[in-house]
Amino acid sequence: MKDLESLSASQAAKALAKREIKAADLLLSCLDRIGQRESTVKAWVSLSKENALARAKALDKGPIKGILHGLPIGVKDLYDTYDLPTAYGSPIYANHYPSTDAVSIALMRQSGGIILGKTVTTEFASFKSGPTTNPLDQKHAPGGSSSGSAAAVADLMVPIATGSQTAGSIIRPASFCGVVGYKPSFGKISVAGVKSLAPSLDTLGCFGRSVEDVALGVAAMSGDHGLATVDDLHNKLRIAICKTPDWELASKDTVSAIALARFSAESIAKGKVEDLSLPKTFDHLRESQTRIMLSEMSRSLAFERDHYSKKMSAQINKQLTDGAMITYAQYSQDLDHAKAAQFWIAELMNNQVDLIIAPSAVGEAPLLKDGTGDPIFCRIWTLLGLPCINLNIGSGVNGLPVGIQLIAGPGKDRFLLSTARAFALALPDPVLRDQA
Amino acid sequence: MKDLESLSASQAAKALAKREIKAADLLLSCLDRIGQRESTVKAWVSLSKENALARAKALDKGPIKGILHGLPIGVKDLYDTYDLPTAYGSPIYANHYPSTDAVSIALMRQSGGIILGKTVTTEFASFKSGPTTNPLDQKHAPGGSSSGSAAAVADLMVPIATGSQTAGSIIRPASFCGVVGYKPSFGKISVAGVKSLAPSLDTLGCFGRSVEDVALGVAAMSGDHGLATVDDLHNKLRIAICKTPDWELASKDTVSAIALARFSAESIAKGKVEDLSLPKTFDHLRESQTRIMLSEMSRSLAFERDHYSKKMSAQINKQLTDGAMITYAQYSQDLDHAKAAQFWIAELMNNQVDLIIAPSAVGEAPLLKDGTGDPIFCRIWTLLGLPCINLNIGSGVNGLPVGIQLIAGPGKDRFLLSTARAFALALPDPVLRDQA
């Protein structure tokens, strides 16, 4: 069998479960692809070739272990792995070998997943880029902080890879690389064993090439295996477009993407899709998100700052200094602001709106030299703790992907996945419908 | 100066800040006390004598570093420390040397605290006891899971020590050992770097010999330094006694403790203190807490179970098996139940009741052979995420301490500390008033 690396995670998982393909062959196809492309894409920090192949062969001989049986997985190098070094994107941890897997990784292995290697993260999942390029145009950035995972999945190096989002680190790179990125509801996946940046915000998730792929990944990572089965949609949907208070920052490409999204939304909603205006108090929600993130970062990285500040970038040292200058009273006020907004949005999404569509990013991927891109269109949704999925909706002036995000009410992950698949199936471009 | 080890943390901190005593002398007094008593109490897993003494001397010479300047601290061996081994109460991690401090420990060091050593925890903070005895009567248990920390503080080995609570692991041992235990609001202290048991429940906190001590500890651990100053109470208080749905399990000692607490409560409330009856839906809240804990444990310890189940006790292996049998649908329903109850109690405590008084434990410390004691009277308060403080209110039939817990609304930690101090000052026994 050829081109196994181009199978989506859900296609591969089905074929593996029926023993139509071998885990070892799929793994070798992925390794081939990595061999051809890694010098350009630079998505990987480490690879576990021998161990992964041994495990693949064992899985081919043994019983079906679970929903990820035989699937190769890329793991963001912010997650602890007991068998591969884990550097959190920082030279401080260059030779760090954790003794345990992150909880979500142990659960992926329990479901039969094969950890193929660790993917590039920015420094402590903040803004200092790693070497990864955008696989669609190597002059451009893949986005951050889950740079390597988004690029590896986009480039067919691996069908699925893990990410984490504190501001916009799943949705933004997914949009830039043209893959499906899924940040589930806050707290859905245990963050234990993943380097902590801002505990009130840190959310784990994954990348795939279809909605079914990311459903599979988060099902395994959370232990909510029912999530892997994406239901059909039956009920009438109430969808709203939310341009957010930062709409003026959206590029023409993002403006067009939202217009395109409206058409597909109206076809699945079977009616007109209105614009949602957020209450005035939401205007400063992204500043609250930024302050909460910086304030918590200054505590989360206190050990590193005290012991190794010279091994940290000027960028992150500045963030830590800024964070330490935010008063606890201001930080508490921001948490209260977030809580009130969470309450408001939960009420709205229980009673009036089932699904929100919003921009994923300002526009196409920026040039490599310009960094990881602005997470501005993700900040408030992360703070609100809502489940979000990025879908690719077309391409921009440079021919690079432009995404939009679908957002459901808190805890409504299962509904979000169903809606995202229905939405993808309603897209006019047949290639984009493959994201279903 | 003599008997430095008997100073409370806040007394010592004040004397250290004024350079009236030396950190090195305080440390040596604590080490002397440990030398005399450790063979009986068995509170410590490891001690950092040389490093701690070197640091104490450096602090004596240097500027005042922060609110814990020069204070020796016991750290529950569930918290990572970069300079001491960390075993989580399990032989699996017998030779585990983390590369980083838990966030809360790094923050305590930033505030000038001296990590004196690691204290005994039960196996992964669950029910399998370590060797620690109750310092007041070595035939009896200190309670768990923060066994060593509670015993060490009670026995004057250290003025302050850290704990964690997933069911009743701070409040219960505090009650059994007759010390002040403080579990702040859920999320107040970052859990990063502390072995995860059940992420929806795990809450860090500390033990001291007065309300001011635990205020100091949690102020440093959370970064909310304002918390260290315990305010005077001015407003009229609305206090309610909550016997909880498990009142029939309370021993005579606990029944008397609640009756005694009512007197002091009425003196600070300046009026009659009513009983709070919880809504019918709260009747099964402790079962929800138990299932959430077991279900999350089965995921949190997936790695250990897959790799080292033979090094785990029969007790915890059974918990993990039980946890894995709880369906995700049941678990989700329990989380929804918790969320609804959290909403109800927040409303109540915003509008009608400022402070709840409830039992801390069934009664006095059980015999060593009978384990760590039942956390039943703590389960719902942990699930509700409310800040709780244990105060010793007298002694029971065996002459061992009996505590009650004061509970405030979510996030109202500062208020809780003020109230707890006022309450302690209103106790009839002058010795117990030292807890203020």
Explained architecture:
Two copies of one chain form a homodimer. An eleven-stranded mixed β-sheet of chain A has the order 1-3-2-4-6-5-10-11-9-7-8, sandwiched between helices. The relative contact order of chain A is 0.14. With 436 residues, chain A is an alpha/beta fold. Chain A contains 15 helices and eleven strands. The first copy, chain A, folds into two domains: 4-228, Amidase signature (AS) domain (Amidase signature (AS) enzymes), CATH 3.90.1300; 239-433, Amidase signature (AS) enzymes. At the A-B interface, helix 4, helix 9, helix 10 and helix 12 of A face helix 4, helix 9, helix 10 and helix 12 of B.
Q: How are the elements arranged and paired?
A:
2 copies of one chain form a homodimer.
Chain A: H1 9-17, H2 23-41, E1 44-47, H3 49-61, E2 72-76, H4 103-110, E3 114-119, H5 147-154, E4 160-165, H6 171-177, E5 180-183, E6 203-208, H7 211-222, E7 239-241, H8 252-269, E8 274-275, H9 285-300, H10 302-308, H11 314-325, H12 328-351, E9 355-359, H13 376-384, E10 388-395, E11 401-408, H14 413-425, H15 430-433
Parallel strand pairs in A: 2-3, 2-4, 7-8, 7-9
Antiparallel strand pairs in A: 1-3, 4-6, 5-6, 5-10, 9-11, 10-11
CATH architecture of the largest domain in chain A: Alpha-Beta Complex
| Tally of domains of chain A | 2
Low-confidence segments of chain A, ≥5 residues, pLDDT <50? none
Q: What's the total helix number of chain A? A: 15
What can be said about the biggest beta sheet of chain A? 11 strands, mixed
Given the helix and strand composition of chain A, which structural class is it? alpha/beta
Summarize model confidence as the mean pLDDT of chain A.
97
Rg of chain A to the nearest angstrom?
20 Å
The largest inter-chain interface, given as chain pair and residues per side, is:
A-B, 35 and 35 residues
- Strand count of chain A: 11
In CATH, what is the homologous superfamily of the largest domain in chain A? Amidase signature (AS) domain
The topology string of helices and strands of chain A comes to HHEHEHEHEHEEHEHEHHHHEHEEHH
Say what oligomer this is: homodimer
Separation, N- and C-terminal Cα atoms of chain A: 24 Å
CATH topology of the largest domain in chain A: Amidase signature (AS) enzymes
Relative helix content of chain A: 40-55%
